[in-house]
Amino acid sequence: MIARTSRTVIVTRAAASAAVASVLLLTGCESAGSGQDAGADGTESAAAEQTAGSTEAAATEEPTEPAAMTTSGALVDDFPAAVKPLEDAEIVYSSVEPGEEGEAVKLNLTMRTEMSESDVLKFYAKTLEEAGFEPTADASSADGITKQTYHADEASQLLAVTINADPNTDGALLVSVGGTALP
After folding, report:
1. pLDDT reading at 65 higher than 70
2. Is 160 in contact with 149 (CB distance < 8 Å)?
3. Distance between CA 14 and CA 63 in Å, rounded?
4. CB proximity list for 148: less than 8 A, separation 6 or greater
5. Is residue 130 a contact partner of residue 116, using CB atoms and an 8 Å limit?
């Protein structure tokens, strides 16, 4: 068995806004400093000053909530209960991006398992049905990847289960469940 450590990364909206504003500021500085004419009315200079002010404001804002949480080797906190990890599977990666109050969250769960493809499909058919999901069609396979999608009417929840051979571990499968579900 491979020992893996768990890492969690949290990206806040304020940090993301500051990063975007910084890119805009650098872009504005580059074109102003590259010898291009800023225009008679100084519009590029005014835009750069406004972007600089936005960057300072974003950097001083208090983070309100995480925009996305990811971890490797474990389920991330607040992962939706409707999506259960496979029994005896190694969790490779999980993530959740919160939505607004009462809305579905974006999620991803990737696992490594020695279960058969048929058993994986049966597991998710049973557990997702118990959570109120129905298959949208029969499972399909193409190019070594099997996919089954599920839908739940409440909040337009949609999940896809994908299964393919693990290129790094003989006899193992990589299973990913991704989409949107209520928290």
Report:
1. no
2. yes
3. 6
4. 121, 124, 125, 135, 138, 139, 140, 160, 161
5. no
Q: Which two tokens stand for residue 102?
A: 């009462």
Say if residue 149 is exposed, middle or buried (CB neighbours under 10 Å; 0-12, 13-18, 19+).
middle
> What SS3 state is found at 41?
coil
In this structure, what DSSP letter does residue 152 have? Answer: E
Q: For residue 91, list its beta bridge partners.
A: 111
CB 107 within 8 A of CB 83: yes
Cα 150 versus chain centre, distance: 18
Model confidence pTM above 0.70: no
In this prediction, residues 54-65 reach a mean pLDDT of 53
Give the Cβ contact number of residue 155 at 10 Å.
Answer: 14
Residue in 149, 147, 178 with CA at minimum distance from that of residue 164: 147
Q: Are 173 and 155 in contact (CB under 8 A)?
A: no
DSSP letter (8 states) at residue 3:
-
**HEC-encoded secondary structure of 108-132:** EEEEEECCCHHHHHHHHHHHHHHCC
Measured distance CA(104)–CA(125) in Å, rounded:
20
